[in-house]
Amino acid sequence: MKLELEHVYERDLDSVLAAFLDEQHILEKNQRIGSRNVKVAELRRDDEAAKLVLEREVTVSGKVPGILASFQREWNHVRQEEHWFRKDENEWHCEFRVRIEGVPAKIQGNMRLFNGDNACVNQVSLQVRCDVPMLGKTIARYLIDDSREKIEKEYSISRSLIQARG
Fold it and tell me: What does the DSSP 8-state code read for residue 101?
């Protein structure tokens, strides 16, 4: 299953990317989201590429359907790995993977961050695959819905933090 979103930031590409790859921004955003035990396990950047590995514990966004309760806990350990690379002076791409401990699904995707008209645009594409017999589509649908809510909340918080930077 696939999820595609587009987010606009009223800043230029360099400012938005700098925030996305700033440890203080990452920690503040996750604190406001409500994550706990947040750890930036790896953060490297040069002029052409970057890598971010983030570990944290998150809660589910809504009620877990009964059939999925055995896979979910109140708090879930999540590891997110992002590989960023410069496409050109006006665009960066990111490939990412998200692993939720104890959940039998693969979550991966990409982002395209580029300068738009007086703003920076982030196009997010996320795919969820779950091969559990008879439950795979239900689990994937739930994870897509939960991811949509989390991503939109992260966008709102990140956007306000970036705006506050001035």
Answer: T
DSSP character for 66? G
Judged by DSSP in three states, 76 sits in strand
Helix (H, G, I), strand (E, B) or coil at 158: helix
CB 146 within 8 A of CB 159: no
What is the domain class of 2-165 according to CATH? alpha beta
Span 97-151, pLDDT tens digits: 999 998 889 999 999 999 988 899 999 999 999 988 888 898 899 899 999 999 9
Of 47, 44, 49, 48, residue with least CA distance to 22: 44
Q: Give the C-alpha separation, 57 to 62, whole Å.
A: 16
Q: Which amino acid is residue 25, in one-letter code?
A: H
